[in-house]
Amino acid sequence: MLSLAWGEIEIEGVGRVKDAALHPGGGGAWDWNVTGTRHSPGIQPADVEPLLAAGATSVVLSRGQQLVLQVMPETESYLAECGVDVHIAETREAVRVYNLLADAGVRVAALLHSTC
């Protein structure tokens, strides 16, 4: 289960992080510097590859609480080519969808941005 406040996501069993990368069986802080992600052009294929490697069949991508974070079209295409269900939403909605899918036993992953 996840809870959200501005600038903070609380992950059960992990604690509080600013941005989160979650995958089946685990997760933690999402460090944008690893792949050079920025608000624009946004979440890139390299950001989601570890989620798929962990066995995700559904991926939730948050665009931030003010929808500033973009998702590259190449990322959506890559996930579609892999046969992965994709949900892109404002962060509060993304957390709600993630929790619903996780509670239903779906092998869900997420990239969650807690601010703008």
Number of strands: 8
Give the number of domains: 1
In CATH terms, the superfamily is MTH938-like
CATH architecture: 3-Layer(aba) Sandwich
The proportion of residues forming helix, as a percent range, comes to: 25-40%
Strand order of the largest sheet: 5-4-8-6-7
Key features of this structure:
Hypothetical Protein Mth938, Chain: A, 116 residues, AAMDC, three-stranded antiparallel sheet
Brief write-up:
The protein has helices spanning 45-53, 73-81, 91-103, and strands at residues 2-5, 8-11, 15-17, 19-23, 26-29, 58-62, 85-89, 108-113. By secondary structure, it is α/β, with parallel strands linked by helices.
What does this structure look like?
This protein has a five-stranded mixed beta sheet with strand order 5-4-8-6-7, sandwiched between helices. By secondary structure, it is of the alpha/beta class. It has one domain (2-113): MTH938-like (Hypothetical Protein Mth938, Chain: A, 3-Layer(aba) Sandwich). The longest helix has 13 residues, at 91-103. 33% of the residues are buried. The chain has three helices and eight strands, in the order E-E-E-E-E-H-E-H-E-H-E. Keywords: Cytoplasm. Its main location: cytoplasm. It comes from Catellatospora citrea.
How are the secondary structure elements laid out?
Blueprint: E1 2-5, E2 8-11, E3 15-17, E4 19-23, E5 26-29, H1 45-53, E6 58-62, H2 73-81, E7 85-89, H3 91-103, E8 108-113
Parallel strand pairs: 6-7, 6-8
Antiparallel strand pairs: 1-2, 2-3, 4-5, 4-8
